[in-house]
Each structure stands twice: as structure tokens, then as C-alpha cells.
Amino acid sequence: MPPRHLALAVAVAAVWGVNFVVIDIGLAHFPPLLFSALRFTVAAVPAVFFVGPPRVAWRWVLAVGVVLGVVKFGLLFIGMHVGMQAGLSSLVLQSQAVFTAGFAAVLLGERPGGRRLVGLGVGVAGIVLAAVDQGSSGSGSMRAFVLVLAAAVAWGLSNVLTRKAAPPDLFRWMVWVSVVPPLPLLGLSLLFEGRAADLAALRSLSLGGVGALLYVAWGATLFGFGAWGYLMRHHEVTVVAPFSLLVPVFGMSSSWLLLGEPITPVAGGAALLVIAGIGLASFTPGRSRPLSPSEAAAADGHGDGDAPARTPRRPSAAAAAARSGRPD
């Protein structure tokens, strides 16, 4: 990987990790479901008018839009709103790799090998340790932990659905997926958070709230997925995917620096276990190489000009989880 691509991969991981801090800031300005609805609205509009059609069946766009956009992000934002720390959220959400492998075994008939099972077991041990650390601060915090863990379950299911959809362009795919959640999330916000709370948040909109909204929509979503898709078109999965393991590193360190969240020895041990376990489970050893121009064109979906895009070769479920490794 050339230095500029290496720097871009680290930058994406940093943007995604710091995103948890920004979400925490945004939740001080917006109710969680409204914040999530606005995030997807700003990510989709006006980008959806310039990217062209999604080039996958609409049922997959709708399915992933609901599971990823409504369920996963709704649960994540609520969990952080009711007490889950930003840094720990960035770590617990990485358990999506475990749930991705489980859904792939049930829905796709994939059977993980011994090495992957060991890695997933190590990752689960890290999540249990994180739960112990979170539970020590009270029942309310444990409720928040369960909500974020449920968000990771939804992310795992959306990874398998995305594999079935096999979108040829990750950026275009994410823009169209972002079109689905705003109306359902807004309806849920009006139902559970109330019209008065939503209007009060919009009337008292500040630069901090606008900045947080633009960061999570344009930085974490559009830039993050656009840059990640660019890297995936030029390098093999095993080269790019490991950089997603930096997300909780940036998430926990930025939460400590910017929000003053403590990193306890238990939380640090949990982070090491989760990162090591997912790394062991997700990546296959072997020499990697840059993609040839023809392979890059095929991966980008433009190898045949205006002809229908080729279906990408499907990676393993764990690799696909790491490939889509955005947190938030």
C-alpha cells in the first residue's frame, strides 16, 4: 500500500473512531432518534441526486436501510443517550464481527474454521469483560450496554444482507441506504420523544449541534465510506480490513482526551481481547498484492463501460464484516 493510501486508511479509522465523541456531543443537542433521522437526511441529500441508481435490487436497499439505519443506529444513539460511554461504545460495536459470523452460518450456510472460532471466542471474552466493567457502574449503564450490543447484532445482520446484495460501489450503496431511515426514524422520534422535544431541539439549534450533524453525515458517512470504497477498489480485503481495528483505538483514546472518559484496566483488557479476537477471526494470512487496473475497474463496477456491473467476488463473512467496518 503506497504511503498516501496508508495515510488515507488511518484517516478513515480516525474519523470513524472520533465519530463516537461527536455523536456524544450531538446527543446533547438532539433527542437520539431525531439526531439519527437528521444524520441520514443530511447524508442522503443532495448526494442521492448525483450518484445514479443503486445498481442492486431495491429490496436489499430497503432491508439494509431498515436494519442498519433504523435499528442499528437507533439503538446505538439511544444506548449512548442513556449512559453508554462513547469510547466503550466504539469497542462493543466491534462485536458485530461475532454476530456477522453467526448470521452467516445460519443464513448462508458458512461454517467457521477452528482458527476463526478461537478468534471469535477471544472477542466474546472481551465483550463479557466490557460488560463487567460497564455493569459495575449501575443497572442503568447495563441497560445502555445491552442497547449498544443489540445495535451490534443488527449491524451483523446488515453485513450479511449487504453480502447478499453485493453492491458494486460502496459509496453509492451507502448514499441510497441513507435514503431509507429518515422517515421511519422521524416517526419513531415523534412517537417516543415527542413533537415538543423535537421542535425545541430544532429551535435551539447551535453551531455545536450543526457541526456534530455535519460530521456524522458528511465526515463519518460520505467521506468514510467513499474513502473506504476507494481503498477497497485498489487493494485486497486483507490489506484494507485490518485498519478497521483502529476504530476502537481512536474511539477510546479520543473519548479519554476530549470527554474525560476514564479507561479502566478492565476496559483496556477488554479492548485488547476484542481487537485481538476479531483480528484472529477475520483475516487470513498470506501475501497480499495491489489490484491490477482491470481488477480495480471490475471492483469499481465500471469495467464494461455502460454494461451491467460485474458481481464482486464474495469474501468470507468475517472479512465482509471487517470490510464494512464503520461503527457508527
Explain this structure to me?
The protein has 328 residues and is mostly helical. The chain has one domain. The chain is built from 16 helices and no strands. The longest helix is centred in the C-terminal third of the chain and has 28 residues, at 207-234. It is globular.
Write the layout of secondary structure elements.
Elements: H1 3-26, H2 32-44, H3 58-81, H4 86-92, H5 96-107, H6 114-135, H7 139-165, H8 170-179, H9 182-193, H10 195-203, H11 207-234, H12 237-240, H13 246-259, H14 265-282, H15 293-300, H16 317-323
Quick structural summary:
The protein is mainly α. It has helices at residues 3-26, 32-44, 58-81, 86-92, 96-107, 114-135, 139-165, 170-179, 182-193, 195-203, 207-234, 237-240, 246-259, 265-282, 293-300, 317-323. The protein has 16 helices and no strands.
Q: What count of structural domains?
A: 1
Helical residue percent?
Answer: over 70%
Radius of gyration: 19 Å
Order of helices and strands: HHHHHHHHHHHHHHHH
**Overall number of strands:** 0
β content, as a range? under 5%
Question: pLDDT below 50 for ≥5 consecutive residues: which ranges?
Answer: 287-314
- The secondary structure category is mainly alpha
Largest sheet: none
Shape: globular
- Determine the mean pLDDT: 84
